[in-house]
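ARCHIVE CARD
CATEGORY: sequence design from structure
SOURCE FIELD: tokenized fold
FIELD CONTENT:
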């Protein structure tokens, strides 16, 4: 998967705005999950679900 990076700054209320082009590229809607990991921060759509593959 191609990595996309962008530098964002927090506003005075501690928020960041993810540009529409990035949200569209990764299928992010108004609601996202924010996961804090040792490796960094992960944003994920709550629609994401692991499903078992058929054998």
């Amino acid at each position: 998967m191609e990595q996309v990076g962008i530098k964002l700054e927090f506003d005075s209320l501690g928020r960041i705005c993810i540009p529409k082009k990035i949200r569209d590229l990764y299928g992010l809607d108004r609601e996202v999950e924010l996961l804090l990991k040792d490796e960094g921060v992960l944003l994920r759509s709550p629609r994401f679900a692991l499903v078992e593959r058929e054998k």
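CARD ANNOTATION: The chain is about 15% helix and 20% strand. The helical segments are 20-26.
SHELF: design records, drawer C
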